Amino acid sequence: MSNPRLKDQYQSEVRSRLKERFGIDNDLAVPGLSKIVINMGVKGAVESKARVETAAKELATVTGQKPTVRNAKRSVAGFKLREGMPIGCAVTLRRDRMWEFADRLISVVLPRIRDFRGVKSKLDGRGNYTVGLSEQSVFPEIEFDRIEFQQGMDITFVTTTDDDEQGHALLKELGMPFRNRKAEDN
Q1: Domain definitions of the chain by residue range
Q2: Mean pLDDT per 10-residue run, the chain (186 residues)?
Q3: Which of 51, 68, 81, 143 has its CA 20 to 30 A from that of 87?
Q4: pTM of the model
Q5: CA angle (48, 56, 150) in 5-degree steps
Q6: In the beta sheet, which residues pair with residue 119?
């Protein structure tokens, strides 16, 4: 089995450019991806447990890995939510699955978004980046006719660096279509 395309690109080109740009001597100190976490908080999960199961199936289809169902940690009377109720699902991708998903997201999924002008370039202060998608139908694996309800998700790229500048440079080198910073200010 061959390496994913994006992983090969990272190992052959991106790593050396990042070493040179940031003056890093040690190969292990070069920023890299450690994992990608996809999280779906399911709207309407309180009324119907089947919604969480449907969302989990769709998330498994998109990622190729079985998601874990996330339960409420506390009861909130205003939302009719009780502790322990299923309210979402999540998947943590590592190794080759992580690289394959990142490649598909960057080269296929994001360009399919209507009126797409790039993703925001703000990282979390610790070198990690989260992008939110408002609907699952942008993934080619999801059959549009079989969607029961629109479901959004958060996709977090966890890097091996604590520095936002290095994390941004890594994702930019991997092909993440960031907006211009001037366009974000408007």
Answers
A1: 5-43+88-185
A2: 80 88 86 89 71 82 85 74 78 90 83 77 83 75 69 86 86 83 49
A3: 143
A4: 0.82
A5: 65
A6: 178
* DSSP calls for 52-65: HHHHHHHHHHHHSS
For residue 67, what is the DSSP state?
Answer: P
Neighbours of 92 (CB within 10 A): 17
Give SS3 for 129: strand
Neighbours of 169 (CB within 10 A): 18
Domain 5-43+88-185 has CATH 3.30.1440.10: yes
Pairing of strands 129-133, 86-93: unpaired
In this structure, what token pair is assigned to residue 82? 């009780």
pLDDT at 35: 92
